[in-house]
Write a structure and sequence with these properties.
The protein is mainly alpha-helical. It is built from 11 helices and 3 strands. Helix 2 crosses helix 8. It starts with 17 loop residues before the first helix and ends with a helix.
Length: 203
């Protein structure tokens, strides 16, 4: 498995910074309901597109304020058998209201058939196209970070800057090893300035 990084071999950033994340969210909120909720889910949970496609109404906890996401990276138990791992990620109540209004989550949860049907009936390629279009509209530069992976990495960097403990971020992102999550502690640029400013304020 290749090592996860925040920069490619040419030194290009692989994550969206704070300004780019805000611009992406602003443009996403002007989109039709399906595209808006799809993009907001990626923004607020840091999930992978393949994981997003598995989210059903049954995995939305409207009262608890979380979304349950199945980690699709292969995991094995002590006996070497593949195991299923779910993680719950907290999301803003305003977003859950939007999700419920757009997709009738609460009503769908009353029917077993509807509750277990995917919310977004799309392919991974289509998700990539939607995200890329919105990133272009948000004036995010044509660079390696203009992708769904850049959005996921941006979530990790943002959480680290905001002081989210690495073990908690590890759980939210579905990393098997804390050492993988630790790359976000290497945030740079304005993100690193934000971390440093806290240190300066305590001198």
């Amino acid at each position: 498995m290749s090592e996860m990084r925040l920069h490619d071999t040419q030194g290009n950033r692989l994550y969206l910074n704070a300004e780019e994340r805000a611009a992406f969210l602003a443009v996403a909120r002007r989109q039709p309901a399906r595209d808006r909720t799809l993009c907001e889910t990626l923004h607020w949970t840091g999930c992978r597109p393949s994981e997003l496609l598995e989210i059903t109404p049954a995995r939305i906890d409207l009262s608890g304020g979380t979304i349950a996401i199945r980690s699709l990276k292969k995991r094995q138990d002590a006996a070497g058998r593949q195991k299923t791992v779910f993680r719950t990620v907290p999301v803003p109540p305003e977003f859950l209201d939007t999700l419920n209004t757009a997709h009738g989550i609460r009503e769908a949860q009353k029917s077993r058939r509807k509750a277990t049907a995917p919310i977004w009936d799309l392919s991974r390629v289509r998700i990539w196209q939607i995200v890329k279009r919105i990133m272009i509209d948000a004036s995010i530069p044509d660079a390696p970070h203009r992708s769904p992976k850049g959005l996921r990495h941006g979530f990790g960097v943002h959480a680290t800057v905001q002081g989210v403990p690495l073990h908690m971020l590890q759980r939210w992102l579905g990393h098997a090893q804390l050492s993988t999550t630790a790359i976000y502690a290497d945030a740079v640029g304005k993100e690193e300035q934000g971390i440093a400013s806290r240190m300066w304020g305590k001198c």
